[in-house]
Design goal:
The structure is a single chain. The chain is mainly β. Among the domains are: about 100 residues, no CATH class; about 70 residues, no CATH class; about 70 residues, Wheat Germ Agglutinin (Isolectin 2), domain 1 (2-Layer Sandwich), CATH 3.30.60. Helices cover about 5% and strands about 30% of the residues. It is built from 4 helices and 41 strands. The strands form 14 sheets. The protein has a 3-stranded antiparallel sheet. The radius of gyration is 29 Å and the shape is globular.
């Protein structure tokens, strides 16, 4: 999305609001794909037509991978890989109020999240990036954000203060400010003077700041005193015309124009946006349907003869249809949840939806003729993958399951010094304190690294490994001989505390262990207890899990743990997700993704009967089951295919 494109959006919004004196001829389309200001082709899903506000909708990257739309530093709406968008501090999910958080542009330049005009949040590069080693408000020199003196961007002297969990250099607080922390730490509604000289009262904003603002009219029919639930009561708009109280997307209750009660697509006559007949703006017949912004509008009607359309096939059943090239196909949902006519499934494919709708680990044949197993990939596609019990597809955590070595003898999967999962002699496989048997949740237990140095068990790229504890940090004998619980940073970048743990055969060691609320991404926080009195999601702020009350993600009907939503933080979206069997109804269990044994999972009904097929699996309870169905009957998720290893004596 370019500057010109955003300007155009604002002009269109103005024209729609003020009215247009006349019509113009439509612009001609020469077939050239639209391009951003950087000269790159504009992604169709992130383009102006489908995504004018550059929401984080699903899209296809230039390389053909699954991605999400986001705004770059040049104000182009581009399709980036999912991981980079999930970690982007400026996207709405991570920063709904577009607070000035630290960010890095696509060119690697440090910047700050900045609002551009109508709420577009992007990473604006800094003209003179601050050196983190010399920043008096930075993590290295001022980890506790004490009120030290510092130079502000305008050259004036300021002090370090905490704003939205970030330590920044700002103007010192006026000690006489009636809304300041010194005189009013609880932000009581004391009298104060606003910037325009008019008297106001101290009010707490949604961001938690105490400011001087206009007092609320106690007689306001849309105010919190008379209408805390924002019912559609009658009110008077600023123009003097009668209106009704309406809740905005930002959560404010305002007096606005009432909805046309005769609109067939309005919430009065059509609250669920059923496909009722209506008149479009040009006077032609249309039907009510939801647009990309989830608004019910009158649009062109569906083809009543389309076998994949909402008229004949509202649930997108696999009905026969004709594809664009004229060949036979079937109706199926695509990545954008649209019902399209696509190539039919092979009815004999053991990994296909016909024979294997849940993608159970059934045996299948690879393209080279070797035996494989059905497995879900990152795009939730059920594919036939290599049947290597130590391979990444079947054993992503390198559990010590039974395998066959190159000489034909039986071995166990083991992490090598090169961090590869290999089939080794079982006699050489000691009990791994970071392995899935001894440590299924990868707690920060002490261990010995492959180099013989003390370490702790920590996740690295979803694999639990023994990572070396750096000894020149706050937990070293030189700096911390008594091992006081000083703040430190673990090997993989998490905030921690110095703790004494016994490491055999070296005895007690002072190690940096991650704090319970330490995080690198919001997903790391979803198992924590939600303690605030609101619904929202977790944010990973400066390496610490922080609860955030918001309705941007929570309430959209989709549970997104990657953005910090959990079962307790947002039950309206995540009621289908679980973290333990007790979260599920009787007769169901919490099934984690295969090979992870880590929440969140989804409640699945326990099978009532299973075949006697001998296809053993190792459960997350370290028990071997005859097949995956029997593990499900016992309410146990699958750790790996094959039998569980016997514990090393």
């Amino acid at each position: 999305m370019s500057l010109s494109r955003i300007t155009k959006l604002l002009v269109i919004a103005s024209v729609l609001a003020l009215g247009c004196p006349g019509s113009e001829d439509p612009a001609t389309d020469d077939g050239t794909p639209p391009a951003n200001d950087n000269g790159m082709p504009e992604s169709e899903e992130c383009g102006e037509a489908l995504n004018p506000m550059c929401k984080t909708n699903a899209c296809t990257t230039p390389s053909g991978d699954y991605g999400l739309c986001r705004l770059d530093s040049k104000l182009n709406c581009i399709c980036s890989d999912k991981d980079s968008v999930v970690q982007d501090p400026c996207v709405a999910g991570n920063n709904p109020k577009c607070e000035p958080k630290d960010c890095v542009t696509e060119d690697g330049v440090p910047g700050k999240c900045t609002i551009y005009k109508e709420g577009f949040c992007y990473c604006e590069p800094e003209e003179n990036p601050v050196d983190p080693d010399k920043d008096p408000c930075g993590e290295k020199l001022n980890p506790e954000c004490k009120p030290e003196k510092c130079p502000m961007a305008n050259g004036k002297e300021g002090i370090c203060i905490m704003v939205a969990a970030e330590c920044i250099c700002d103007e010192p607080e006026d000690p006489k400010d009636p809304c300041g922390k010194e005189l009013n730490p609880e932000c009581k509604p004391d009298k104060c003077t606003m910037t325009n000289g008019v008297e106001g009262i101290c009010i707490r904003t949604d961001a938690g700041d105490c400011i001087c603002d206009e007092p609320e009219d106690p007689k306001d029919p849309c105010g919190k005193e008379l209408n805390p639930e924002c019912r559609p009561d009658k009110c008077t708009m600023t123009s003097g015309v009668e209106g009704i109280c309406i809740q905005t997307d930002a959560g404010d209750c305002i007096c606005d124009e009432p909805e046309d009660p005769t609109d067939p697509c309005g919430s009065v006559l059509n609250p669920r946006c059923s496909p009722e007949a209506c008149k479009m703006a040009d006077g032609t017949e249309g039907i009510c349907k939801l647009n990309a912004a989830n608004e019910c509008i009158c649009d062109e009607p569906e083809d009543p003869n389309d076998p994949c359309g909402a008229v004949l096939n509202p649930r997108c059943s696999p009905e026969a249809c004709k594809m664009a090239n004229g060949t036979e196909g079937i109706c199926k949902l695509n990545a954008a949840n649209e019902c399209i006519c696509d190539e039919p499934e092979d009815p004999n494919d053991p990994c296909g939806a016909v024979l294997n709708p849940r993608c159970s680990p059934e045996k299948c044949e690879l393209a080279n003729g070797d035996v494989g197993v059905c497995r879900l990939n990152a795009k939730d596609e059920c594919l036939c993958v290599d049947d290597n019990p130590c391979g990444e597809a079947l054993n992503p955590v390198c559990a010590p399951v039974t395998c066959q070595m190159s000489d034909g003898t039986t071995g166990k999967c083991q992490v090598s010094k090169d961090l590869e999962c290999l089939c080794e002699d079982p006699g050489s496989v000691p009990e791994d304190p970071c392995g899935p048997i001894a440590n299924p949740k990868c707690t920060a237990d002490p261990c010995e690294t492959t180099a013989g140095t003390p370490g702790t068990c920590e996740y690295q790229e979803r694999m639990c490994l023994c990572l070396e504890t750096t000894q020149d940090e706050p937990c070293s004998d030189l700096i911390n001989p008594k091992c006081t619980p000083d703040t430190c940073e673990t090997n993989n970048g998490l905030k921690g505390s110095c703790t004494t743990r016994s490491v055999e055969p070296m005895g007690p060691q002072c190690l940096c262990l991650a704090l319970p609320d330490a995080c690198k991404e919001a997903f790391d926080c979803v198992e924590l207890e939600w303690t605030v009195k609101c619904y929202g999601r977790w944010e990973c702020v400066s390496g610490k899990c922080e609860p955030t009350c918001e309705q941007v993600y929570c309430g959209n009907g989709t549970c997104e743990p990657e953005f910090g939503e959990s079962r307790t933080s947002c039950p309206t979206d995540c009621e289908d997700y679980c973290f333990k069997n007790d979260d599920c109804l009787e007769g169901s269990f919490c099934e984690y993704p295969d090979g992870q044994c880590k929440a969140p999972g989804k409640c699945q009904i326990k099978p009532v009967r299973c075949s006697d097929t001998n296809d053993p699996v190792c459960g997350c309870d370290d028990q071997t089951y005859q097949n995956s169905c029997m593990a499900g009957m016992a309410g146990v998720s699958i750790l790996a295919l094959g039998e569980c290893p016997s514990p090393t004596p």
